[in-house]
Specification:
5-stranded antiparallel β-sheet; alpha+beta; 3 domains; 9-stranded mixed β-sheet; Jelly Rolls; 443 residues; globular
Length: 443
């Protein structure tokens, strides 16, 4: 195929004979006219600024030209290698509404802009700035609930799971359409789970309200045993890189009147003492939804990973007790996590993959289906995880040790969270009433 030079392309463009697939950005690149304000800033706004703006997880903002210019070579390398924006799903399996990946054309635009000298261009070409609620990735919350007391964190050593119970004060049925967990000491938070504890629940009933506690500080033996395991509904899970919940207008999570929120915090140390006072922001549904969102999980806590093994496989199965609409996935492992997948196992034994990710402990993402999947009662779900306990894993705390389930990052976990939608009048306990005896999903 003959390669056209810039002059030939310009002639074809004038004659209207250039290939229809030629994008405006590509044409600008060939003419050497790519600029920050016109060509690059729209890409940054849509795909990058959710993290790359003041106060967010990224270490540098990309809101203005002056902020972006010093990082142009790093940006070029990161987008060309597809390290950024972070996304770890196998592109051959499933389609996801929150996939931030850049298109090949967008990657080429950024690379060409850098190669052409990263010119700013005319500020009047800039798109309107994106509006962000200060301190939030969701719009300004209707209600913010914060742990009443900060948790002091040491510079070194293990920190036992820490809990804080926060009364909501809600006096009526409350439907939450969006929510976001915001740690104040993000670099110390391995994960956080906020549970809904309704007034009828006996979970942690002897625990103090509004002050931090751990299982070992509780006086009642039953409370100490029950601290780590509950059938309470999950409002939201947070881990590094995870996204807030944003449900469609006809779906929401439910908080009964008189409920408490139980913050379960897993802290890690990093050589610097700190304190954390995590909060959760809630945006309420304007009208009662048609469907209620439940967070369920497939969990295997009975594994033993031998030392030195680089591809150890762990799996778990469960069947849906009733019909549901599958919405999203959130896999969770620790530092030896390598891959994770969710599948449907059909009656004939064939396996249909739903999601496969190359797991990254430092970017624990959720994966929201572009088209929610209706599943019938009795559908068998499978979660499979692979662990790398070898010396080839640069994050491995100790390749000479056998590894079992445990709370700390040098232990391991295998949890496949997933969200489903059910009728609005069905709670989790009603959902788990089975029509026939079948293997159970973890609640």
């Amino acid at each position: 195929m003959k390669v056209l030079n810039r002059r030939s392309w310009a002639l074809l463009l004038l004659l209207g004979l250039a290939p229809f697939a030629l994008q405006a950005g590509q044409a600008a690149a060939m003419a050497g006219h790519l600029t920050f304000y016109k060509d690059v800033l729209p890409v940054l706004q849509r795909h990058c600024q959710v993290c790359h703006r003041p106060g967010e997880i990224a270490p540098m903002p990309f809101v203005t030209y002056e902020q972006t210019k010093p990082w142009t070579q790093a940006i070029r390398q990161a987008v060309q290698s597809r390290q950024m924006p972070p996304w770890f799903a196998d592109p051959a399996i499933g389609h996801f509404a929150n996939d931030p990946s850049l298109t090949p054309q967008q990657i080429q635009t950024i690379c060409d802009w850098v190669d052409q000298g990263a010119k700013p261009g005319d500020p009047s070409d800039a798109p309107p700035p994106r509006h962000w609620a200060a301190g939030w990735r969701i719009p300004q919350p209707d209600r913010i609930l914060e742990m009443p007391r900060p948790v002091p964190l040491p510079a070194e050593g293990d920190v036992e799971y820490t809990y804080e119970i926060v009364p909501t004060g809600f006096t009526k049925d409350t439907w939450v359409r969006m929510s976001e967990i915001r740690p104040s000491a993000r670099d110390h938070v391995h994960h956080a789970v906020v549970y809904v504890r309704p007034p009828s629940s006996h979970w942690l009933r002897h625990a103090p309200i509004g002050v931090p506690f751990t299982a070992s500080t509780l006086k009642e033996p039953q409370d100490r045993r029950d601290a780590m395991w509950t059938d309470s509904e999950v409002l939201l899970v947070y881990a590094p890189g995870s996204a807030p919940d944003r449900w469609s207008t006809d779906r929401a999570k439910y908080i009964p009147p008189g409920s408490d929120l139980v913050f379960q915090m897993h802290y890690t140390t990093n050589g610097h003492a700190a304190s954390d006072q995590t909060s959760i922001g809630l945006i309420f549904a304007k009208t009662p939804p048609k469907e209620r969102v439940l967070t369920l999980q497939l969990t295997n806590d009975k594994f033993v990973i031998p030392p030195g093994v680089d591809n150890y496989r762990v799996e778990v199965h469960g069947t849906l007790p009733n019909d549901a609409t599958l919405l999203s996935f959130f896999p969770h492992m620790h530092l030896r996590g390598k891959r994770f997948e969710y599948n449907i196992v059909h009656r004939d034994g064939t396996v249909e993959p739903l999601l496969r990710v190359n797991y990254n402990f430092y970017w624990q993402l959720s994966y929201k289906l572009a088209t929610p999947r209706s599943l019938k009662a009795g559908t068998e779900l499978q979660a499979v995880a692979w662990f790398d306990n070898s010396r080839n894993n640069p994050h491995n705390p100790d390749p000479e040790s056998s590894v079992t389930w445990g709370d700390q990052t040098y232990d391991e976990m295998m949890v496949g969270f997933f969200d489903v939608a059910v009728p609005a009048n069905m709670d989790k306990w009603q959902y788990f009433k089975r029509r026939a005896a079948t293997p159970r999903l973890a609640q």
